[in-house]
Design brief:
By secondary structure, this protein is of the alpha+beta class. It contains four helices and six strands; from the N terminus they run αααββαββββ. Strands 3-4-5-6 form a four-stranded antiparallel sheet. Strand 5 and strand 6 form a beta hairpin.
């Protein structure tokens, strides 16, 4: 009888473990779901080369230093994103396959980060020549709450 009681408690404890968002190791909370929804919007917008959709999920204070804090020449902000980066996506990139796996989410008040692994394959045209490029890496997307919604403030 005692063994049955211990087994019942063990089963109950296992059943009370954290629930995760499907396909991730991210705890299933409404905040995490909201953040992952923006990550998915980002993934789809890049695959569809939809600059308008990207503008909708990027914060006005966006800033990118390309992970080179000592070198400022590759830094850009929101205005440069609109004028220089997004037109390249639309004009020079012809096809994109983009997979993102969210490994971890951190939310602190009105700021958040999603730690991701991505695989990117894209067809491009440069100088009249077509080519394909691939990449696989880890990245951190940073978010800020703006106008009541999570928006990407760094990490594209």
């Amino acid at each position: 009888m005692r063994l049955l009681a211990v087994a019942a408690v063990a089963v109950a404890m296992l059943g009370c473990g954290p629930a995760y968002i499907e396909g991730t190791t991210v705890p299933d909370t409404s905040e995490n779901r909201d953040l992952l929804q923006v990550v998915e919007q980002y993934r789809v917008a890049v695959e569809q080369r939809d600059a308008g959709a990207l503008v909708e999920i990027v914060a006005r204070g966006y800033f990118e230093n390309a992970s080179t804090t000592a070198e400022a020449k590759d830094d850009y902000g929101y205005e440069q994103l609109l004028r220089k980066v997004l037109p390249v996506l639309q004009d020079n990139v012809k096809k994109v396959l983009f997979k993102i796996t969210v490994e971890k989410v951190s939310i602190k008040g009105s700021q958040a980060s999603a730690f991701v692994e991505y695989e990117l394959t894209f067809q491009y045209v440069e100088g009249g020549l077509e080519g394909w490029a691939t990449g696989k890496d880890k990245n951190r997307l940073d978010f800020v709450m703006e106008d009541g919604r999570w928006k990407i403030i760094a990490g594209l």
